[in-house]
Write a structure and sequence with these properties.
alpha/beta, Rossmann fold, GMP Synthetase, Chain A, domain 3, 2 domains, five-stranded parallel β-sheet, five-stranded mixed β-sheet, globular, binds xanthosine-5'-monophosphate
């Protein structure tokens, strides 16, 4: 990266004009080499802690840190029970099994779902999920000794948006501000497309690097109203079918965000010749540049037909599928 001063990188939160956009694997490799030496210099023989959600940013930071300092890094993955199908398993497979990371996996599903039981109000749900995440993470972190650094997947839009006061959403995994650890933020001057390019060059699987945006509170905001375990399972299974069918049709490469929502209302239908009073599954697929406004994807009817058939026949408790044809505004992208 021509004329790029490493010291400047760590001291300032401003992307230097001389920093070339990472658009090729070669440029990504250069960035990785540079960061590996930066990280080693910053951390020395210290220990780093990282909350690893499995999202693109924290995954790329984890892979960079593993390359730079190996076992001096400890990753904590908190499964709040609101992950998509197979997501926590993928974190374990990629980071623990393939990359040999020190990974602490916490299945906190019961803690989260017990706290959320009966809570209907969306912002209250977000607060509970965010607050409990910090609690679980802190409890695990306090069992470790000698940690001097905290890795974070901050990216450049986060810096720009928080400076402008735009950022309305705080990610789950946003940690308290009184942490006394020195931050290690190797991708903080990169845009999302560059983070993905670096992730690919680090050998992370395409399904991880190319992931669509996923809210911190996870499926919790798609199992609308008070979350119940059976309806949450219906959201997870229907989402997995939608993702599978979109991937088969190549839409995972072009559609910005797509997911299912299962609200807590039931409607009459027929299954196996009998009356079935079950939930409806809403499919939402949108395109946007910046998530501030969005338009709907005009999904082919035949494909919708197929997805609807699979969801209503494979997911227990669902007897109807609806397609959301609402732009943002007036709808938001998520339902809560
Ligand atoms: P909305 O629903 O506000 O969503 O139109 C805009 C984008 O933000 C994501 N989103 C969230 N991300 N925590 C997050 O980290 C949240 O609480 C949250 N709520 C919405 C949403 O998926 C979309 O990409």
């Amino acid at each position: 990266m021509a004329d790029f001063n490493i010291a400047e990188y760590y001291q300032s939160n401003v992307r230097p004009d001389s920093m070339e956009r990472i658009t090729t694997p070669e440029l990504a490799k250069e960035f990785i080499d540079e960061q590996v030496s930066c990280i080693r210099k910053q951390v020395g023989d210290g220990k780093v802690l990282l909350a690893l959600s499995g999202g693109v940013d924290s995954s790329v930071v984890a892979a960079l840190l593993i390359k730079a300092i190996g076992k001096q890094l400890t990753c904590i993955h908190v499964n709040h029970g609101l992950m998509r199908k197979g997501e926590s398993q993928q974190v374990i497979d990629v980071f623990q099994k393939q990359l040999g990371a020190n990974l602490i996996y916490i299945d906190a599903t019961d803690r989260f779902l017990d706290l959320l039981a009966g809570v209907e109000e969306p912002e209250q749900k977000r607060k509970i999920i965010g607050g409990e995440f910090i609690k679980v993470f802190d409890e695990e972190a306090s069992k470790l000794t000698g940690i001097g650094f905290l890795g974070q997947g901050t990216i450049y839009p986060d810096i720009l948006e928080s400076k402008d006061g735009i950022k309305a959403h705080h990610n789950v995994g946003g940690l308290p501000e009184d942490v006394e650890l020195e931050l290690v933020e190797p991708v903080k001057l990169l845009y999302k497309d560059e983070v993905r390019m670096v992730g690919r060059a680090l050998g992370l699987p395409e399904s991880m690097v190319d992931r669509q945006p996923f809210p911190g509170p996870g499926l919790g905001v798609r199992c609308t109203g008070a979350i119940t375990r059976d309806r949450l399972e219906a959201v997870r299974e229907s989402d997995a079918i939608l993702r599978e069918e979109f991937a088969k049709a190549g839409l995972n490469k072009t559609v910005w965000q797509y997911f299912t929502v299962v609200p807590p209302f039931k409607a009459t239908g027929i299954k196996d010749g009998k009356r079935a009073f079950e939930w409806s599954c809403i499919i939402r697929a949108i395109n946007t540049k910046d998530a501030v406004t969005a338009t709907i994807e005009h999904v082919d009817w035949e494909l919708l037909d197929k997805i609807s058939y699979r969801i209503t026949h494979e997911v227990p408790g669902i007897n109807r599928c609806l397609y959301d044809i609402t732009a943002k505004p007036t709808g938001t992208i998520e339902f809560e």
